[in-house]
């Protein structure tokens, strides 16, 4: 199938879909109008390829409502045997170029996650640049996204990301089969992401010879993922959990200290708050060179995509001996859940959510221990060995191991029977 100058490699069709019925439903067009809307390749029109010099990422812009621009980025060629997978991010950028650059950066970051665990996907991202997020018609946005996804015929799947919700994905799933967000199951993909963060924290502490009861944690960002992380740390009897968020009310997590409500004269700046583990769960690029020089932590382990503002910021923390567990390991819970959903929907939809979270935690913990061992505990060695701990592309997707792990786990823990 060719779309403009973009070819989609059709190795297999993953989900059957009546494209004509879908388009007519969304656009409410007549039979004649439908034929007029199609281009010569038989796909919905209004997709333009954007040139991205020096990048392997394909970026397409699709028609969307006034005041928004809808971009879909896929790292590498579009293909249905190894489809792209990444969430839908809604954000107000300073410029069109910044939105495209973020789409490329995030899609390539998703490839690192998928490759790390061999989920069966490649990296992709949907980025919606809005002039004013508050004025976006979410219902119409989901229709626009559904048309775009349908035109790509199973080469891209999506789910939640910044400023898109489970309700949005529920709406989108009624319009498109190309949604992986725990729809139809009790699994919360935000909780799954938090579970991978927790797994990485436990793996790093075990490898570093530290006890969670003796450690201080600073959770920066208490939204959909960070709040779960903070609560789970408390449940695990962490020594001291400190929270902060641009929204002071969200920082109020039971059992945690809210950094922003400290008494006058006490430190309320996360950048200089002493901790054993800094847990970034907010936006990207929060650690710049200045922060890297003053951050008081032994580990950086979180859910934020691309937490470093530039390569030198990472070099600075490495040189200071701060061990960074890349987000391709620590923030992979949602795509691990996606891998189960994609290869074994029956298991995914029937399983107890806690078992899914425990599996994600286990997988991330083991991967983090492997990373620590390969790096010999040296922060500066992480970037040198990270590719060695990634799964080979060939082989069954990681999600296919869930059912056997679940059976083994339940046999060893009879109280965990579903």
Characterise the protein shown here.
- With 418 residues, the chain is of the alpha/beta class.
- Helices cover 39% and strands 15% of the residues.
- Strands 3, 4, 5, 7, 8, 9 and 10 form a seven-stranded mixed beta sheet that branches. A six-stranded parallel beta sheet has the order 13-12-11-14-15-16, with helices on one face.
- The N and C termini lie far apart (44 Å).
- Mean pLDDT is 88; it is low at 1-44.
Please render the helix and strand layout as text.
Layout: E1 2-3, E2 6-9, H1 19-27, H2 31-37, E3 47-50, E4 57-62, E5 68-75, E6 78-79, E7 84-85, E8 88-91, H3 96-117, E9 122-130, H4 138-151, E10 156-157, H5 166-175, H6 189-207, E11 216-220, H7 226-235, E12 240-244, E13 257-258, E14 277-280, H8 289-294, E15 299-300, H9 311-319, E16 323-324, H10 327-330, H11 333-343, H12 345-350, H13 353-374, H14 382-385, H15 402-412
Parallel strand pairs: 2-6, 7-9, 7-10, 8-9, 11-12, 11-14, 12-13, 14-15, 15-16
Antiparallel strand pairs: 1-2, 3-4, 4-5, 5-9
TL;DR of this structure?
With 418 residues, the chain is of the alpha/beta class. The chain is built from 15 helices and 16 strands.
């Amino acid at each position: 199938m060719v779309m403009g100058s973009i070819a989609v490699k059709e190795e297999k069709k993953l989900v059957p879909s009546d494209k004509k019925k879908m388009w007519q439903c969304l656009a409410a067009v007549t039979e004649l109008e439908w034929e007029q809307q199609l281009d010569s390749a038989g796909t919905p029109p209004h997709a333009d390829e954007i040139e991205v010099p020096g990048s392997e990422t394909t970026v397409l812009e699709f028609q969307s409502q006034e005041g928004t621009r809808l971009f879909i980025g896929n790292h590498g060629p579009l293909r249905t045997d190894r489809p792209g997978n990444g969430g839908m991010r809604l954000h107000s950028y300073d410029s069109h170029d910044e939105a495209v650059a973020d789409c490329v950066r995030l899609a390539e970051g998703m490839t690192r996650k998928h490759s790390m665990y061999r989920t069966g996907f490649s990296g992709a991202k949907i980025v919606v640049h809005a002039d004013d997020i508050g004025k976006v018609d979410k219902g119409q946005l989901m229709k626009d996204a559904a048309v775009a996804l349908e035109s790509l015929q199973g080469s891209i799947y999506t789910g939640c990301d910044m400023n898109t919700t489970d309700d949005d994905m529920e709406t989108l799933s009624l319009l498109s089969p190309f949604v992986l967000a725990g729809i139809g199951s009790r699994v919360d993909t935000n909780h799954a992401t938090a579970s991978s963060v927790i797994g990485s924290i436990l793996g790093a502490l075990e490898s570093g010879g530290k006890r969670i009861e003796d450690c201080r944690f600073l959770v920066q960002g208490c939204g959909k993922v960070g709040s779960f992380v903070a609560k789970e740390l408390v449940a695990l009897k962490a020594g001291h959990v400190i929270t902060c968020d641009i929204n002071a009310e969200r920082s109020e997590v039971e059992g945690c200290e809210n950094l922003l409500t400290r008494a006058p004269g006490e430190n309320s700046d996360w950048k200089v708050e002493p901790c054993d583990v800094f847990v970034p769960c907010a936006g990207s690029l929060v650690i710049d060179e200045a922060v890297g020089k003053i951050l008081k932590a032994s580990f950086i382990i979180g859910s934020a995509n691309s937490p470093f503002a530039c390569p030198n910021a990472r070099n600075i923390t490495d040189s200071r001996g701060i061990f960074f567990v890349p987000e391709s390991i620590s923030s992979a819970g949602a795509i691990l859940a996606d891998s189960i959903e994609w290869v074994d929907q029956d298991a995914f939809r029937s399983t107890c959510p806690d078992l899914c979270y425990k599996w994600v935690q286990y997988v991330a913990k083991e991967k983090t221990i492997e990373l620590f061992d390969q790096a010999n505990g040296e922060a500066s060695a992480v970037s040198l060995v990270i590719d060695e701990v990634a799964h080979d592309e060939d082989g069954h997707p990681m999600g296919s191991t869930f059912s056997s792990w679940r059976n083994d786990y339940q046999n060893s823990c009879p109280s965990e029977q579903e």
